[in-house]
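Lab notebook, design round three. We kept the backbone fixed and only want residue identities now. Task for the bench partner: fill in a sequence for the structure below.
Input structure tokens:
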């Protein structure tokens, strides 16, 4: 449902407008939750600000790239690309674990990497096939 809704928005508005609006709505929802359920931490530390920066820039890049992809390559290929996010999730979990932050890493990392690699390989095959078709013309 989200892909269909975003596709309709991209037809009428620019990619940056759609990404900005979706992130603004998400931020407003999170702000409402924060106000209704205050946490025990009143003053965030340096580590908290780093996480805030990471977890605000990564969704911004993801939303912007996703919406640009919808506009240029269509919903099916964009969904395929978005489904390969397991590699990014695993990468960030390993990065955070290296810093010393406890994360929930899958029990079988090899299967997670193979699954993500298959998604990336599928994306590669789609682009190779498109390139071959354009070269023949």
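Proposed sequence:
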């Amino acid at each position: 449902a989200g892909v269909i809704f975003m596709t309709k928005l991209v037809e009428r508005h620019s990619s940056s407008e759609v990404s900005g609006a979706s992130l603004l709505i998400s931020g407003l929802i999170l702000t409402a939750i924060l106000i209704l359920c205050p946490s025990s931490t009143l003053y965030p530390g340096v580590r908290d600000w780093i996480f805030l920066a990471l977890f605000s820039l990564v969704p911004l890049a993801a939303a912007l790239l996703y919406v640009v992809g919808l506009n240029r390559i269509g919903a099916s290929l964009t969904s395929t690309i978005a489904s390969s996010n397991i590699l990014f999730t695993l990468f960030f979990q390993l990065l955070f674990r290296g810093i010393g932050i406890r994360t929930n890493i899958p029990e079988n990392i090899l299967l997670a990497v193979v699954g993500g690699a298959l998604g990336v390989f599928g994306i590669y095959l789609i682009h190779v096939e498109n390139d071959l078709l354009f070269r023949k013309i």
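Keep this in mind before ordering anything: Residues 51 and 57 are 10 Å apart (CA to CA).
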